[in-house]
Amino acid sequence: MTAIFAHRGFSAIAPENTMAAFRAAETAGADGIELDVQLTRDGRLAVIHDEKLNRTTNGQGYVKDWDWKDLSRLEAKYKFTEADQDIGIPLLEDVFEWMRENEIICNVELKNNEFAYEGMEEKVIRLIRQFNYEGRVILSSFNHYSLTYVYRLAPDLETAALYSSHLYMPWKYAEAIRAGAIHPNIRTVKSEIIRSSVENGIHIRPYTVNKEKHIRWLIEEGCTGLITDDPKAALAIRDQVLDT
Ligand code: G3P
Ligand code: CA
User: Fold this and answer.
1) Host H or E run for residue 105
2) Among 12, 17, 149, 217, which residue carries the largest CB count within 10 Å?
3) Is residue 175, in this structure, part of any structural domain at all?
4) Which regions span the lipid bilayer (predicted)?
């Protein structure tokens, strides 16, 4: 069954990458959440999409130039100006702590494409081990050097290659870099890619899938998962498809 992942949490109704969005995803019944991590100046794993604070928070400048004690005071309401609960920037460990209460799968996207964030992989892996979440966390990145580094450090963890262009036979590429999954932009996905990936044991979870026709198609094709801003809508479509 195609697993439904809430992109940056239930970001259609709550500020992205906040506990409010993750809790909303759980309430909606999502199988998983997707989130983004950046590294602060003092080496903490902050859950936020952009390298800069400007778009989603009331702070400014690069995350890498802030210490956590100051970052933790910011609000990350983004466009949800009325939101008033759980709207701070979480640490990855806060999300992992919350996951003790549920069975949510967590796709951690390492946002180390613009800045390499030395030591980020080790910190994330250490946290996964601390919580015994080896079977509940998928590590993805557009930086595939980072994914191969994760594989070297922790071959038991599932890595997922994010990409947005038309990669040829991406399931073969995933095997070559020892990734257990591909996370392609939905624009690049073809039925053959879904079928060959699944047949070859490579998980495939396209992003960001918000159109009904795409969600229906992926579910009918037996795609491993999909990443959407609106997990509630995707779950309703999955129910319909499974009923027919
Ligand atoms: O992980 C899928 C998707 O989140 C990648 O793109 O820009 O939304 O982080 P972006
Ligand atoms: Ca992401």
Assistant:
1) strand 105-110
2) 17
3) yes
4) none
pLDDT reported for residue 139: 98
Mean pLDDT, range 102-129, rounded to an integer: 97
Q: Known catalytic residue: 166?
A: no
Whether 198 is covered by a domain: the verdict is yes
Check which CATH number belongs to the domain holding 152 and give it.
Answer: 3.20.20.190
Residue 71 falls inside a structural domain? no
CB atoms near residue 135 (< 10 Å): 11
What is the 18 CA–ligand 2 centroid distance (Å)? 13
| DSSP code per residue over 8-77 | TTTTTTS-TTSHHHHHHHHHHT-SEEEEEEEE-TTS-EEE-SSSBSTTTSS--SBGGGS-HHHHTT----
For residues 241 and 219, is the Cβ–Cβ distance under 8 A? yes
Best residue among 10, 162, 229 to mutate for probing ligand 1, ranked by most atoms within 8 Å of CB: 162
In this structure, the strands spanning 225-228 and 158-163 are unpaired
Confidence of residue 172 (pLDDT cuts 50, 70, 90): very high
Ligand nearest to the CA of 185: 1
pLDDT in tens, 116-150: 999 999 999 999 999 999 999 999 999 999 999 99
- Told to judge if 7 belongs to the known catalytic residues of this protein, a careful annotator would answer yes
By DSSP bridging, strand 158-163 and strand 105-110 are unpaired
Rounded mean pLDDT, 65-92: 95
Residue whose Cα lies nearest atom 10 of ligand 1: it is 49
Q: Is 182 in the pocket of ligand 1 (CB under 6 A)?
A: no
Domains of the chain: total: 1
CA-based torsion, 63, 65, 70, 75: positive or negative:
negative
